[in-house]
Design a protein that fits this description.
This protein has about 375 residues and is of the alpha+beta class. The chain has a single domain, classed as 3-Layer(aba) Sandwich (Beta-lactamase), CATH 3.40.710.10. Helices cover about 35% and strands about 20% of the residues. Helix 2 runs antiparallel to helix 13, helix 3 packs parallel to helix 6 and helix 3 crosses helix 10.
């Protein structure tokens, strides 16, 4: 199976950038095709983009359509919703603020959000917010919390169900409050700090929270379970928790910034490196800021367990790592992201200079996307 078979998949195409072509190029295409063709067929995926980086050599694979209504193909310009992968950007902005001395992750949230001073939640820290260990904040806000003022009141009234650091409960409000506190500490508005600062400093030119009018023709339509076109709904702290739209090329640049942060300006380098520190052991997974960690090589069963629905939907016991764990030997960092019409996944191994991004306009089941990406990373690593 060579380049022609990849070009034929769902009517899509393939492009590669980076180092000149070498003998392994066809092998990369075969590996990606073998992993993602069955996934696309099994889950009726309208379109997707897969991007791989291998020791600085980039390969891009574009499959299918950005919208079934107009049949526009997925290209390097196609914007996808990345869902909770957005949380890794929020974490990076927080560690950047720490690198500048504008906040400490050991601060209570009330230091930067005065309305929370003296509240029960103020016994936690920004680090707890960023690792979902602040005491049991839920996955979503209650339905009646629809404005920033209502969110502030909700946080003031919140009563933890566990001591800070004792329980991980995956939470959009938790990471949302971290992002809000970070913006307050930096003296700016969160969207502007990201779009004019964070994304551009990392070399991301096609990554947005609010897609500009000129880019809307490239914004893919998601497809829900009934195959209806859909895009993400606005919500409180959506920008901080799940609101980013990006291309596979930009997301691969973000992965490469994480693979080699030494090429970034000092404060941004420290910011990226600080998101690689592990803070809590949660089952077989280590929770950092944004990224979740596993040893590399990692068995598929362990990786699936770390990305299981129970990790997102149920509270899990957490054990603080003292001291926090800096990556050593081999570590795989990964994060999934979903909205009602989109599915995303990114994973990378700095010690192997290897990474992968998947963006799709269907909310593909997490086990399927994790399994496909794991197969590609493992095959590429073993082929060296």
């Amino acid at each position: 199976m060579g380049r022609r078979s990849v070009l034929g998949l769902l009517g899509g195409g393939l492009a590669a950038r980076g180092a000149p072509a070498r003998a392994g190029r066809t092998s990369t295409a075969e590996v990606v095709d073998a992993a993602f063709r069955p996934l696309a067929a099994a889950h009726d995926v309208p379109g997707m983009a897969v991007a791989v980086t291998d020791r600085g050599r980039r390969s891009f694979f574009h499959y299918g359509v950005a919208s079934r209504e107009d049949g526009a193909p997925v290209t390097q310009e196609t914007l996808f919703e990345i869902g909770s992968l957005s949380k890794t950007f929020t974490a990076t902005l927080a560690t950047y603020a720490q690198a500048l001395g504008r906040l400490s992750l050991a601060d209570p949230p009330g230091r930067h959000v005065p309305a929370l001073r003296g509240s029960a939640l103020d016994r936690a820290t920004l680090l707890h917010l960023g690792t979902y260990t602040a005491g049991g904040l839920p996955l979503q806000f209650p339905d009646d919390v629809a404005t920033p003022a209502a969110a502030s009141d909700y946080f003031r009234r919140f009563q933890p169900v566990a001591a800070p650091g004792a329980q991980r409960r995956y939470s959009n409000p938790s990471i949302g409050l971290l992002g809000h506190a970070t913006a307050q500490a930096l003296g700016g508005e969160f969207v502007a700090l990201c779009e004019a600062g964070l994304y551009r400093q990392l070399g991301l030119r096609q990554t947005w929270l609010h897609v500009p009018a000129a880019r809307l023709p490239h914004y893919a339509w998601g497809h829900d379970r009934a195959d209806r076109p859909i895009r993400v709904n606005p919500g409180v702290f959506d920008a901080q928790a799940y609101g980013v739209k990006s291309t596979a090329a930009d997301m691969l640049r973000f992965v490469e910034a994480n693979l080699a942060p030494q090429g970034l300006p000092p404060a941004w380098r420290r910011a990226v490196e600080d998101t690689h520190v592990g803070h809590f052991q949660v089952g077989g997974m280590v929770q950092g800021l944004g990224w979740e960690q596993h040893p590399w090589p990692v068995g598929l069963d362990r990786l699936l367990a770390g990305n299981a629905s129970t990790m997102a939907l149920e509270p899990q016991p957490a054990r603080a790592l003292a001291p926090p764990r800096a990556p050593d030997g081999g570590t795989l960092f990964n994060k999934t992201g979903s909205t009602n019409g989109f599915g995303a996944y990114a994973a990378f191994v700095p010690q192997r200079q290897l990474g992968i991004v998947l963006l799709a306009n269907r909310n593909i089941p997490v086990p399927a996307r994790v399994s496909a990406a794991h197969a590609v990373l493992q095959a590429m690593d073993e082929a060296r």
